[in-house]
Amino acid sequence: MRRTWKLNEADLEALAIGAAILGTGGGGNPYLGKLRARALLRQGYEIRVLPFDALEDEDVIVSVGGIGAPVVGIEKIEKGDECYRAMRALEAYTGYRVTALIPAEIGGSNSIEPLIAAASADLPVVDADGMGRAFPEVQMCTYFIYGARPYPAALADEKGNTVILGKVQDMYWLEKLARTVAVDMGAAAGFALPPMRGEEIRRTAVPYTLTQALNLGRAVLEARARRENPIESVLKVTNGVLLFVGKVVDVQRRIERGFARGWVRIEGFEAFRGSSLVIDIQNENLVARRDGKVVATVPDLITVLDLETAEPITTETVRYGFRVAVVGLPAHPRLKTPQALEVVGPRAFGYDLDYRPLKGEV
Amino acid sequence: MIRVGIDVGGTNTDAVLMDGTQVVHWVKTPTTADVTGGVLRALELVLTESGFAPEKVGAVMIGTTHFTNAIVERRDLAPTAVIRLGLPATQALPPMVDWPEDLRRALGEHVYLAHGGFEFDGRPISPLDPLELRKIAEDIKAKGVRNVAISAVFSPINPEVEAEAARIVREVIPDAKITLSSEIGRIGLLERENAAILNASLQDLGHKIVRAFSQALRDAGIPAPFYLTQNDGTLMSAEFAEKFPVLTIASGPTNSMRGAAFLSGIKEAIVVDVGGTTTDVGALHHGFPREASIAVEVGGVRTNFRMPDVLSLGLGGGSIVEREPLKIGPESVGFRLTEEALVFGGSTLTATDIAVAAGMAEVGDARRVRNLDPAFVEAAVERMQRMIADAVDRMLLSPEPIPVIVVGGGSILVRDRVRNLPTIKPDHYPVANAVGAAIAQISGEVDRVYALAEIPREKALEEARSEAKQRAVEAGADPSTVEIVEVEDVPLAYLPGNATRIRVKAVGDLRLA
Question: pLDDT (tens digit, 9 = 90+) per residue, B12-51?
């Protein structure tokens, strides 16, 4: 038996909060995933986590997650085995036997999807992911940024359809074709990425992010229980920076090429009185400017939290009048190499800006 | 027209009699365990004391805690079945999955999944299967269950499949009391379904309460109709309330804020409602409370109701004051204020005693607080002002100075200015909540996803507007007064065809027969 550790129900509560914070405003709400994982635990299934340093070169790892629109996810709840069947379809197509699963993104609902599929398949989940946060598109996975082959991949829906993308030209085509199939499947499907070797994961993944999300969630829950300031706990466990405290005074949203774009303006109070912060949104929070001056950019994490509870507020629910703290959390170094910034830096999202580290970041 | 507004609170049941826009008389009576008894008492008192003949009353508006209490205390709930249309999707999380165990048991766990429901773009997920539904209905009938909630995936964009399922269930169970999720909630299957299930389980109590209130009005000699207030500050008719009792939940804070707007004549303001134990601070926008949009739990069940965005502080007239170090609340003597406070001959130092000692109010016997140290009194007054000022500051939407309206029985704790903002204590401020009930209007709402590739945005908005107005009229609004008060459209990410979610709310004055 391999060296793994297990997740319990309390861990799922913490993970859901931590993953939502790492979702930086997007990624979908992990609430439904948490309920499904909890139901599996209650039926006697186990969720086992494989430590990053326990990966073996020969491991065959598949990354699974949901692809579609978050609003569809909260309405057309999954049948439950979509990701599992996508993974099995990929095994059948390639002849590989998968030895562990891994999240594509730790931010939002896709942090929990692989746990559910892994529990059903009696496989462990690697303590790592391909984003260290949430991003809107699959080519933004570090796996592909650092050279993993972008095919074959598989999608499955609740009706029994599975689709194999046998060969795609590059990671951008993978995103484009998978997205088209997912929309036909009702804008909610299970998605399995190409199998990778353990050695490849070690070289490309963002390590220990399941642990990070867990610790983040636990810190918030413990601070709430002790009636301490949960925002401070978030900053402490992430080495993050408090960017702003204030209330939301304006929200603009529109759709461009399938993405929710827009901005949120926050007027400061407490130590930030007289100042205002504008956050640019493309599904996730991407750039924060205080009084016109850039204070944080993607790929660093910009997260809007409820001022009292540190409950993360998504770009879809943020509204006029919310009282919030905005925190900047430093992204993992693997997201900040020149190679990575080309895909996930501000310019990749159309900003005429260079990435700049968070102030006070070590 | 003469109307009577009644607000049932945790401590007091308040009633106010209004002639047109004038408050004629008001009373406060203790809330009774059966609620209805207190309502009848308040009704009789306000009529006798004001000398108005019961026949002159044109309408009675009641804000009640009956249904909230039933859910929170898990009593008077009918056994309820739930049918969800969505197979093969949604199996991962069956209905009531995240409910507290005891509440689920109270309803009997009669849960069914069936085919039907829609994709986001209106394509069916699977066709409705009449045979399957008939079998489910037979099973429900055999169990002796009559209350049924029906939900379907994406029913807010197309309610037809839920209606069709209801027809089939009625063929088998002619006396079924059916709630459709599309009639009650927004996008978000579990939350909307939860609200529908709660509503179905409250139907029998709804019927009972409506009859009890009718009887109370008859006993008081009032021939006029009555209405219940909803959590968005609008009214529903007795027949509508019987069908949708769940919409009354948390109407209290809304009534206070609406009453404050009415009494002061101000539509953009911060409202501070100081009670015996807590202070609720909310923001008025166009004369209505700003809504919270975070999931709201009712009795441990997640719903996506419209709720006012209210900040609650543990400060009220009954808050217990401690010295060295100075501490005010959140503990309170509550309804025992008139026995336990110093000025009423008791032995507990309360926020009310501080206000009296500081000369801000004349209640009880001021001599009993004469020997409090003036410096301490001043420090305590300052602390209370700061607690309220901080809460007001958080609810403010812009640096523009807007007035602060102070209402509620504990208003004596608040000075003339909060920070740099002028405070207004309108006439009849202690019963702003009952006034809010008396003046409540009627609303209609639409929340739906539109594909803007198929229908131009303007046309979609127009369609939503006219349907919201239509719903308001159906709920009892006078068509000539109906206006749109809220329009929100949120584009949906990752979807083709420019899908957008449009929410529109219309309100109008009550139509009187």
Answer: 789 999 998 899 999 988 878 777 888 999 999 999 999 9
| Sign of the CA dihedral with B380 first, then B382, B385, and B386 last | negative
Pairing of strands B57-63, B226-229: parallel
User: How far does the CA of residue B190 sit from the closest CA of chain A (Å)?
Assistant: 8
- d(CA B32, CA A22) in angstroms, rounded, equals 49
Task: Give the type of residue at A339.
Answer: Q
CB contact under 8 A, B494 and A259: yes
Whether residues A75 and B398 touch (CB distance < 8 A) is answered with no
d(CA B280, CA B259): 14
In Å, how far from its chain's centre is CA B54? 28
Return the CATH number of A5-207, one of 3.40.1610.10, 3.30.70.20, 3.40.50.20, 3.40.50.2300: 3.40.1610.10
| Smallest CA–CA distance from B94 into chain A, residue | A77
Q: What does the DSSP assignment read for A96-151? A: ----EEEES-SSGGGGTHHHHHHHHHT--EESEESSSS--SSGGGSHHHHTT----
Please list the residue range(s) of chain A that carry CATH number 3.40.1610.10. 5-207
Q: Do A187 and B393 touch (CB under 8 A)?
A: no
pLDDT computed for residue A362 by the predictor: 43
Rounded to a whole number, what is the distance in Å from the CA of B462 to chain A's nearest CA? 19
Q: Using DSSP, state whether B325 is helix, strand or coil.
A: coil
Contact B116, B180 (CB under 8 A): no
Q: Taking the model in full, what pTM does it have?
A: 0.85
**Do residues A230 and A223 touch, judged by C-beta distance below 8 A?**
yes
Q: Quick check: A253 and B154 CB within 8 A?
A: no
Six-digit token string for B496: 């083709």
Q: How far apart are CA B196 and CA B242, in angstroms?
A: 14
What does residue B199 show for φ and ψ, rounded to 5 degrees?
-60, -45
Q: Which residues of chain A are within 8 Å of residue B449 when distances are taken between CB atoms?
A: 71
Confidence of residue B493 (pLDDT cuts 50, 70, 90): low
DSSP state for residue B348 in the 8-state scheme: B
Tens-digit pLDDT profile for residues B75-95 = 899 999 999 999 999 999 999
Look at B397 and A259 and tell me if their CB atoms are within 8 Å: no
In angstroms, the CA B258 to CA B234 distance is 9
Question: B211 φ, ψ to 5°?
Answer: -65, -40
Residues facing B505 on adjacent strands: B445, B486
| H-helix segments, B85-149 | 101-107, 130-142
The residue of chain B nearest to residue A248, with distances taken between CA atoms, is B397
Specify the domain boundaries for CATH 2.40.390.10 within chain A: 229-349
CA A164 – CA A156 distance, rounded (Å): 9
Span A331-356, mean pLDDT? 95
Angle between helices B203-219 and B66-73 in degrees, nearest 10 = 140
Please state which architecture CATH assigns to domain A229-349: Beta Barrel (2.40)
- The partner residues of A245 in beta bridges, in order of sequence, read A325
DSSP string, B10-35: SSEEEEEEEETTEEEEEEEEEPPTTS
User: Could you tell me which chain B residue has the CA closest to the CA of A281?
Assistant: B493
Percent of chain A with pLDDT over 90: 82
Q: Which residues of B touch A258 (CB under 8 A)?
A: 493-496
Shortest Cα–Cα distance, A145 to chain B (Å): 22
Residue with tokens 């750039």: A287
Closest chain B CA to residue A32: B93
Q: Do B153 and A76 touch (CB under 8 A)?
A: yes
Positive or negative torsion for Cα A265, A270, A271, A275: positive
| Residue of B494, B495, B501 to mutate for A, most A C-beta atoms under 10 A | B494
